[in-house]
Protein: DUF7196 domain-containing protein
Amino acid sequence: MACNCGGTAAQWPPQPVVVYELTLPDGTVRRYVTHQEADAANKRAGSTGVITAVTQ
Structure:
């Protein structure tokens, strides 16, 4: 018999992780955990970037 030994069972299938990529006009790409972080960074950069949701 298999033993879980007190750990938690892994979720199957693994849940996709969504991150937000901010692409700036100069080609710089930065990733953020939340859309709000990406939006704030975009505003600091002059609101010229494009935010895209990416599933990893």
Remarks:
- The CA atoms of residues 1 and 9 lie 15 Å apart.
